[in-house]
Specification:
5 helices
């Protein structure tokens, strides 16, 4: 079967049928219980060691954090910084934030700090 024949068949599907298929496929995850099938999440050794090291910090200590990420890498880096700050908050630790790579970096990190403190 040629590609043109497939395109011709697909183009003849009624608009209403396509909308019904879209609704069914978009709504199906709402009825699927994800708790019954947990996602296969495996943390790396480096992640576990970082978590252990953060939890071994003495109560009330001061920690120096370097943060040079900007808005362009917010998706990856904001969550990591937020997690570190939340752990430090449970340890009642003070922190010093420094950055030298980009003029935006301190403001972007300050937004994460504000979110953690709310």
């Amino acid at each position: 079967m040629s590609a043109n024949a497939i395109v011709d068949k697909l183009s003849k599907i009624k608009k209403e049928t396509l909308y019904i298929m879209l609704i069914v496929f978009a709504a199906a995850p709402l009825f699927y219980d994800i708790k019954k099938t947990p996602l296969p999440v495996k943390t790396s050794d480096a992640t576990q060691q970082m978590y252990i090291a953060l939890n071994e910090i003495k109560m009330g200590s001061t920690v120096i954090i370097e943060s040079d990420w900007t808005i362009s890498s917010r998706g990856e880096s904001a969550g990591q910084l937020e997690a570190v700050l939340r752990i430090l908050k449970t340890r009642d630790a003070k922190f010093v934030l420094y950055s030298g790579g980009d003029p935006q970096a301190p403001l972007v990190a300050a937004n994460v700090i504000t979110r953690v403190n709310l």
